[in-house]
Design brief:
The structure holds 2 protein chains of 2 kinds. By secondary structure, chain A is α+β, with helices and mostly antiparallel strands. Chain A has 3 helices and 10 strands. Chain A has helices spanning 9-24, 28-36, 54-58; strands at residues 49-53, 70-76, 79-86, 89-95, 105-110, 113-119, 125-128, 135-142, 145-148, 152-153. In chain A, strands 1-2-3-4-7 form a 5-stranded antiparallel sheet. In chain A, strands 5, 6, 8, 9 and 10 form a 5-stranded antiparallel sheet that branches. Chain B is mainly α. Chain B has helices at residues 5-13, 17-37, 42-59, 69-87, 101-131, 134-143, 151-158, 165-177, 180-183. In chain B, helix 2 packs across helix 3 and helix 2 (17-37) packs antiparallel against helix 5. Classes of the chains: A alpha+beta, B mainly alpha.
Chain lengths: 154, 194
């Protein structure tokens, strides 16, 4: 006997109705976006590790009343990426041996929008203005090294 | 018969868009139900959904056990909902002067967990429906249409006598109870188990 055997036929039909209704509740917009995500598939991409997200700590429901901007940090490929979400802007710092050399840059990627690239200054800092909300990821290019963050919702 | 995750996941990993679309169609209702349970705005819900699927694209390469996929999707969706709520400042701040602050948060979490059991059961039912032969699934889908469809109309659409709808419904439900999904041999919804 399973729990399903204990239900009458009418009860089971009612549950089937609820299950099917959830399928009908899926918007075409979400379906198209989810299918389109596959275009971001990459065979041998080394992903950076998330070291810290202040939003993850906040979700543990224990935090001080002082509410600063959201901060995230990632590490990989000998680089560390620190991000601060300041309203619609993203301020960042890249730490690593290559920083200070010319040609270090960070790309901001998001589905359906052209990639935007920001130069990293000699001290390792960069900035993206008016980023807004949505699914994004960052790709740091520093000489031979490259760091790609996992996708994150801003 | 529908394609199994053990086939779909390796195919998607190999670049098969159709396999990916099939996975998306199968689990979007689950993702949507979990998002609804967290009461995100429509726009935030779209963003969380998009992030979950992008994360799955990233994750396909190291998802060694296809049966663990439903559990992975469930856990990731829930975590991304909580993360976004926190990022939007909608986690209830804990005031040390208010001694039941923590307890209220705990209660809200319990409610969310109870909601997860419901969404898991519905996902199992959708998996079970997918296992049924086409004709039987078609009958059950017509029987749960909103607003209800008259037996005369069901009879006409499926080309079966009105008198056989009742007995066929009973057999279809019995078969539904015997599916792998409902017998507990379906994909691992809890996640973590191999």
């Amino acid at each position: 006997m399973s729990e399903w055997d204990e239900l009458s036929d009418d009860e089971l039909v009612a549950l089937v109705g609820e299950a099917v209704a959830e399928t009908d509740a899926v918007s075409d917009r979400r379906r198209e976006a989810a299918r389109g995500a596959f275009a971001w598939r990459s065979v041998d991409e080394e992903l950076a590790e998330l070291l810290h997200d202040s939003a993850l700590e906040a979700s543990a429901a224990v935090r001080s009343s002082a509410e600063g901007p959201r901060t995230l940090s990632y590490a990989g490929a000998g680089l560390t990426l620190e991000l601060e979400i300041d309203g619609a802007d993203v301020l960042g710092e890249v730490v690593g041996a290559e920083v200070g050399a010319t040609g270090v840059s960070v790309a901001l990627q998001r589905p359906g929008v052209d990639e935007v690239t920001a130069p990293v200054d000699a001290a390792g800092f960069f900035r993206f203005a008016a980023v807004g909300q949505g699914s994004v990821r960052f790709v740091v290019s520093a000489g031979e090294s490259s760091l790609t963050t996992p996708w994150v919702t801003l | 018969m529908t394609e199994q995750l053990s086939t779909l996941v390796p195919a998607a990993r190999g670049g098969d868009q159709h396999a990916w679309d099939t996975i998306v169609d199968r689990f979007l209702p689950l993702v949507g139900a979990i998002i609804r349970g967290h009461r995100l705005s429509e726009a935030d819900g779209d963003d969380v959904s998009q992030t979950v699927w992008l994360r799955l694209v990233e994750h396909l390469g190291d998802l060694r056990e296809p049966a663990a996929l439903p559990g992975w999707i469930r856990t990731t969706t829930r975590n991304e909902c909580l993360r976004l709520l926190a990022a939007r400042g909608r986690v209830r701040p804990v005031d040390p002067q208010e001694d039941d602050g923590l307890r209220l948060d705990a209660v809200e979490d319990d409610v969310a967990d109870a909601g997860l059991l419901v969404v898991e059961r519905r996902q199992l039912l959708r998996e079970a429906l997918a296992e049924l032969p086409d004709a039987r699934r078609a009958l059950l889908l017509l029987l749960v249409e909103v607003p209800p469809i008259a037996y005369e109309e069901i009879s006409r659409r499926l080309g079966i006598p009105i008198g056989s709808i009742g007995p066929t419904r009973a057999r279809a439900l019995e078969q539904l109870r015997r599916t792998r999904a409902l017998r507990g041999f379906g994909p691992d919804l809890v996640g973590g188990m191999s």
